[in-house]
Histone-lysine N-methyltransferase SETMAR
Amino acid sequence: MLPDTAALLRRGVVLQHDNATPHSANLTQQWLQRYGWEILPHPAHSPDLAPSDFHLFGPLKRHLGGMAFETEDDLISELRNWFDNLDVDFFRVCINLLLTRWQKCIDLHGDYVEK
């Protein structure tokens, strides 16, 4: 039996996202409140605290480097394959790096964290 999606969405999710318009839109905020997600504050212009920027895009760029795709579907298929084959440690490392970067940001009173 498949798990109840709504129940899964309520299981202690902590979300970090920036203040981009789609993230701060009323509809988005209502959805997040509906499921009770905790939102970590994100200082403006801080890609150093965005896991996609400091941990995801580099390895993805290296993986895709030199590849050519005939169609958009070919690209999507390769992306799905890459994500499906990521080891759980990839995400564990990312979360640990995020904790370290947040502490540096706190120690620097919100200033930019390079590494």
The two ends are 44 Å apart (CA to CA). Residues 1-42 form one domain.
